[in-house]
Design goal:
Length: about 300
Amino acid sequence: MNPFFLNIPEEVYLLSINENGEQHPNFRNKKFDIIMSSALLMEMAERHIIDTDLTNIIPDKLEKTGEEIVDTVIDEIITFNGKRSIIDWITHISIHGQYFRDEIITSLVRKGVLKIQDKKTLWFFSSRKYPMQNNQEVKEVRSRLRELIFSDEIPEVRDLILLSILYHGQLLDTVVTTSEKIKYSDRISQISKMDFIGQTITQAMDEFSLGDLIAEKITELLQGKSAEEKLHDHILSLIEKYRIYDESQLPDWLRKGTEQYKKTLEYVEEVGTAEITFNPRTRKYSKLNYSYYSYTGGGGM
């Protein structure tokens, strides 16, 4: 079990929002999934569920924890025998980005850190925010990281991990000012380069940018195609975007020949788009939604 009240993905998520539940514009894009995937792997490494060398994820103690997002990744590692590089695992987990965002928000609401706030707009449409119940947790995280940056102390593993995420994810402005970042740049760089997973974030984000451009071009061509053609093209876009070298690495709901793939195809036929995701916990599909405050519901399959 996690001895900390919040896990690393939850702390990173809290750093991305203000007291009103509004997320900084830099976080409201698809690259945030790369950052959260890395944070999840780092959480698992800190708890010795996995280990890493310079390039690879190495399974260690793959025992269930009772935490939904961690156990989901453990299941994936068991399925693929852990035989993948760090960057492959980051991008693979990122495919489930919406699911993990939903689970992180749900967990923070359950722990009493965030609250749900629905606001009606345009008479009947509503937007959802998750303002903080108590901002003590995020203040504590920022305080820890600032103390680490401004001191000569040997970093605790957890704080090293968090700083590495912010540094390689270009998110340092959540804890320090521009002048502080410049003044302590050597210290920040030194600490951030101690973590192998963190060093891979930059590469994953760069590769994602190229794949995203390709995916957008493919999406433009989807109009007028059958459900099967749309799904096929969407899978190709994911393969390009996430640098998947072997289709067997795709999750079962996107892998041809599986029973879940057939249900995926049925859902694409129903909603008319292949821009969808699948929640392995609820066994439900939904349309992709990159807003962090609202949810587009989907059917169970």
